[in-house]
Amino acid sequence: MSTVETANASNLNGGAQQVLVTETVVSEQAAFEQQQQQQQQKQPTKQELSILTQNCKLLLVVGEWPVMPIGASTRARRIADRLVANAYDIIGLNEVFLKESTAIVKSVLESSGYNVITSIPESLPSMIKFVNSGLLLASRLPIIAHHFESYTQASGMDVFAAKGILVAELENTNNSESTASRIFVAISHLQSEGSDAIMESQFVHAGAVIQKFVLDRVTNDDELRASTVLVFGDMNVIDLKTPHLYESLLKNLSKETVDLYVRANGQEAVPNGGATFPVDNPVQRLDYVFSLTEFEGRPGVKLGGSEVLSAAVDKLIVQDSDIALSDHLGVVAKIALL
Prior knowledge:
This protein is of the alpha+beta class.
């Protein structure tokens, strides 16, 4: 073989080797990418949910609310439209007492795909009760079951309302991609005035109702650990002004109760943040979203089905308007199911 032929053969062999190396690299890269895709597919997708609590002040007053030149029905329509536009996943409303206003909010939400529970209790528990609880629960997730109990103690104007605690289980429609097996929510509007004893009796009552509802439905410890229980509403407790009531509320709702605003923003944020009342100059933190992470009835079983991503004061009531639609701002929390 001549020198030229040897060189050509060498070049051909080198080229073949280079092609082989290139093909090997490409093949390895493809295999790596495929492996990455398979690993990503195996990892559960975190489903995010937004939760709003809002006091709507849709209640009977002498004349119309003095600082509100808009009638209740008009306010109800505007509130409902904003709820839909903001696309919250779970909504808990307080003070939705008036029948016409209730019907408006319910109709708008249901026509937009929400599942709605309202006008509870349907029959008032005594002759002294003139209105129902004023609670409205709306959820984009199906509502599997729910239970309501009226509080047994009240004082002042609250004796005329059937205030209580509503607890429900929501269907985890993303369950195939998430380990969070069960989702429970509870809403309430606690005593607005009166003695500490009456307030604390409602804390105890609410905690007992929630615990029984959840533990009756979740008997397996592993399933309970992967569950989420949220409680929200106008609690009429000012954490900084009445810290003893705030601590009692946390203690009586469950063995371990997490304030999601504090968890998301830090305790140092509370003195200047989180206030929801009054709407024109909010200085009181009355509205809360809590996560219950351990029950007295199942000690040692920590609920870890979700984590809070954010929590903030919600301004739906003053959104796109010079006129506030209620006397409270709301609170919105975002969680991720794990």
